[in-house]
Amino acid sequence: MGRRINSRILDAIAKRNEPALQEGTGTGMHKLLLSAILVVALVFRLKGIENPLLDDQAWRQADTASMALNMLGRLSDIPSVFFPYLNYDGRVPQRVELEFPFLPYLLAVTWSILGWADIWGRFWAVGFSLLAVWGIYDLSRQIFSERAGLIAAGIYAVLPLSVYYGRVVMPEPITQAFSIWALSLIQRKRGREQVLAFLGPALLMAAAILAKLPQLMLFPVAILLGFWPFNQKKVAGLFSYTLVALLPPMVYYIGVHIGVAADSQFVSGILSQQVAHNSVLDWETLFRHLRGGVLVGIPFLAVVGAARVFFLERSPARIALSVWLGISLLYITVVCVRISLDYYLLPVVPLISLLSGAALDMLDRVPGTIAGIIVISLVIYYSTWIIQPKYIWDARYLTQAVWLRENTLPNSVLVLSDGPPMTFYYARRVGFRLIHSDDRQAFQDLGKIPANFLVVLPKTAREESFLQQVRQSYPEVGPGVFRLQN
Questions:
Q1: Closest to 383 in 3D by CA, of 122, 154, 138, 126
Q2: I want to staple 427 with a disulfide (CB 3.0 to 4.6 A). Which of 97, 319, 404, 484 is the partner?
Q3: Position 118 in a domain
């Protein structure tokens, strides 16, 4: 009796999936619902669209925009234009080891045509984020069903992590779009034996890894989606896909590493210092990021979706999804628990959304659809207030930077009292930062730095004794700005 019931469940799920695998783009109603989801996603991402790059993750956003500023005037100088420069720490912009600057280049081109404004970077981010929402739908539709695709896209569209980091001037929106479509397109090419059929998916995978190195973890998932089960006829396609997907990132990351000062090697430094050599496991911060980024109930819903994949699903993507889940869990417990930045969880958000949609798709047509609407509505409700603090920014940074831009010479060199470097971007100046935590040592270092002005940042961590020494030694010529040299 038990075997007969299980057989009926498997047959029902298989029949539900068959139309999704056969349809090209879905019915008119599915297109309408997808359009509605994209509109909701757009509305959510337009919040704070006019904010300067001083809200949450201001440091990373200002870095991205600074790279774009340093590209102006040399956009056709390829390939050197793709090796990024930042406005610190030196008397001239410094070359740094970062991911391939897709967004900075697009932003620099846009500025060259339309003029400088932060909002253009946010518009690019929102556009790529909407592509990611569409990609979640397309991937889930192929693997599970149209309804699963719509629910997964709806959840991804309004999850707090996806919403906030879908409008930031950072690599994340482009990375998410490239990664999701790399998986979706290779799923479409499944079963093909022509070598050239996998060129597009391979280029997208290469772009995803170039945009953000952790996306390398999706490479085995893509291999399984496109080529499992392996056989001799697929060897040529597998080899060509691997070559195209991995060779460009290898060449670029080696090239960007060469000639960069040891203290500027951000990518390798994060991997070695914050991951490999860091034994501190901050579970409390990780759980706080999960609660605030994907809420409490959605991961449990994803667990139900994973159970469907493991025990009930006949989809040929079963092995790929299982490996994707295993890699994601390993990534969370090895990387995310050591780095106290919530956007490192973004690579697992597409899978959580995908499995959540699969879980609700197990219900009958009407109950499952109603449940999907309720879940998405609840996520919308909680997302609207849980990410409010991320939009807050301090206008004093902008006021200070504008004063510097208008009252100092373009070749002036600044030294900031603390690490956050956003002032360099808004002041259009270069310089140094006082990074020593000891105030006495920091004041001694100040006398050795070849700079024209000290900028005491609005939220400085320096003690009052440090500030008193500065006031006694240097004249204040602007809001928190002290002249070091005539």
A1: 154
A2: 404
A3: no
Burial degree of 140 (CB within 10 A; 0-12, 13-18, 19+):
buried
User: Do 27 and 98 fall within a single domain?
Assistant: no
Tell me how crowded residue 460 is: count the other CB atoms within 10 A of its CB: 16
The CATH number of residue 416's host domain is 3.40.120
Find, among 485, 454, 479, the residue nearest to 469 by Cα: 454
Q: How far apart are CA 357 and CA 349, in angstroms?
A: 12
- 378/422 same-domain check: no
Of 4-13, 199-208, 401-410, the one with minimum mean pLDDT is 4-13
* pLDDT at residue number 339: 86
- Antiparallel, parallel or unpaired: β 413-416 and 453-455: parallel
Q: Inform me whether the pLDDT recorded for 137 exceeds 90.
A: yes
Cis status, amide bond into 229, omega within 30 of 0: yes
Nearest 5°: the CA angle 256, 97, 58 is 145
Domain boundary among 358, 390, 422: 390
Q: What is the pLDDT of residues 11-32, one digit of tens each?
A: 444 444 444 433 444 578 888 9
DSSP code at position 361: T
Q: Let me know whether 378 and 426 are in one domain.
A: no
- The mean pLDDT of the chain is 88
- Select from 207, 220, 151 the least CA-distant residue to 178: 207
Omega of the bond prior to 79 within 30 degrees of 0, cis?
yes
| C-beta separation of 210 from 252 below 8 A | yes
Alpha-carbon distance 248 to 119, whole Å? Answer: 31
pLDDT in tens, 166-216: 999 999 999 999 999 999 999 988 877 676 778 999 999 999 999 999 999
Is residue 231 within 8 Å of residue 245, measured between CB atoms?
no
At 305 the pLDDT is 92
Per-residue pLDDT, 261? 72
Question: Cα(167)–Cα(173) distance, rounded to whole angstroms?
Answer: 7
Range of the domain at 73: 58-113
Shared domain check, 348 and 317: yes
Q: How confident is the model at residue 277 (pLDDT cuts 50, 70, 90)?
A: low
Q: Let me know whether 282 and 412 are in one domain.
A: no
Structural domain count of the chain: 3
Pick from 269, 31, 260: which is nearest to 137 by CA? 31
Helix ranges restricted to H, 172-317: 172-188, 199-211, 219-227, 235-257, 266-269, 283-294, 297-307
